[in-house]
Write a structure and sequence with these properties.
It contains 4 helices and 9 strands. With 196 residues, it is an alpha/beta fold. It has one domain: NADH:ubiquinone oxidoreductase Nqo5 subunit (Beta Polymerase, domain 2, 2-Layer Sandwich), CATH 3.30.460.80. It has a 5-stranded mixed β-sheet with strand order 1-2-5-4-3. The protein has a two-stranded parallel sheet with strand order 6-7. A hairpin with a 2-residue loop joins strand 1 and strand 2.
Length: 196
């Protein structure tokens, strides 16, 4: 690991070591914190000149249900943020697990980094994670009448409602999904003599 990342890791351990987990892999650091320390940790990472993370460059939701096709025993939803310090020239992955699977709520980082706005809206739309304190939390990628959250692992593959333009009615209509599920097997597997 690079020397500057060792310096960052030591600073993280000094400030957050009592409640956080710090992982180093592939020359990157991940700081995993409990939900109750999320907002205060973000403010410290931004304001403390030891860290100086001026920018939030990405934020996304993650659904860990049946993580890696094995029995996952941890919390289901997480919010992962990627931070950048231009002045220090280092990056950090900040991860927090959302405590309640049935009603996933976590504090918003909008007051810390304004760039969190659309990222949090996207995580809300696709995963159903609610960001407490976000002043405009509404769908950003799916239709206003869309039901469910399509990036959740328990969301049906074909969806529930389809939308199409009806030429006779001259308008868009919504109807139950009419696609018949089918299994698509690649030719390589389907034909024993493929490529021979």
């Amino acid at each position: 690991m690079d020397e500057y990342l060792i310096q960052l890791q030591q600073a993280l351990e000094k400030s957050f070591g009592k409640f956080a987990k710090i992982e180093a892999a592939l020359n990157e650091l991940t700081l995993t914190i409990p939900a109750e320390h999320y907002l205060e940790t973000a403010k410290t990472l931004r304001d403390d000149q030891v860290f100086a993370f001026e920018q939030l460059i990405d934020l996304c939701g993650v659904d860990f249900q049946s993580y890696g096709d094995m029995q996952w025993t941890g919390l289901r939803f997480a919010v992962v943020s990627h931070l950048l310090s231009v002045s220090k020239n280092w990056r950090l992955r900040l991860k927090v697990f959302v405590p309640n699977e049935d009603f996933p709520v976590i504090q918003s980082l909008l007051g810390v980094w304004s760039s969190a706005n659309w990222y949090e809206r996207e995580a809300f739309d696709l995963f159903g994670i609610i960001f407490e304190g976000h002043d405009d939390l509404r769908r950003i990628l799916t239709d206003y009448g869309f039901i469910g959250h399509p990036f959740r692992k328990d969301f049906p593959v074909s969806g529930q409602v389809e939308m199409r333009y009806d030429a006779e009615q001259k308008r868009v209509i919504y109807q139950p999904v009419t696609i018949e599920p089918r299994e698509v097997t690649p030719r390589i597997i389907r034909e024993t003599s493929y490529g021979a």
